[in-house]
Design brief:
By secondary structure, this protein is mainly alpha-helical. It contains 2 helices and no strands. It is elongated and about 55 Å long.
C-alpha cells in the first residue's frame, strides 16, 4: 500500500500534462483561427490549417520528452 501515494502523484502529474497539451491543441486551431481572422485573414487560415499540424507534432515530441522525465522521477522508466 505504500506505492499508492506515489502512483497517485504519478497519475496526477500525467493528467496535468495531458490536460495542458489538450488545451494548447484546442486553442491553436480554434482560438487563433477564429480570433485572428479579423486581424490577419491569411495568417489565421494558415494557423488553423497548417500551423495546427505543426503544433500537434510539437506537442507529441513535448509529451514524449516530458513523460520520459516523469517516468525517471517516479522510478518507472524503461532501462
Amino acid at each position: 500500500m505504500s506505492d499508492k501515494p506515489q502512483a497517485n502523484a504519478y497519475w496526477a502529474a500525467n493528467i496535468r500534462i495531458v490536460t495542458w497539451c489538450l488545451v494548447i491543441w484546442a486553442i491553436v486551431p480554434f482560438g487563433f483561427g477564429i480570433l485572428l481572422e479579423p486581424v490577419m485573414p491569411g495568417f489565421a487560415f494558415w494557423v488553423a490549417q497548417q500551423g495546427s499540424i505543426l503544433v500537434f507534432l510539437a506537442i507529441i515530441f513535448f509529451y514524449a520528452w516530458r513523460m520520459n522525465a516523469l517516468d525517471r522521477e517516479h522510478g518507472v522508466d524503461e532501462q
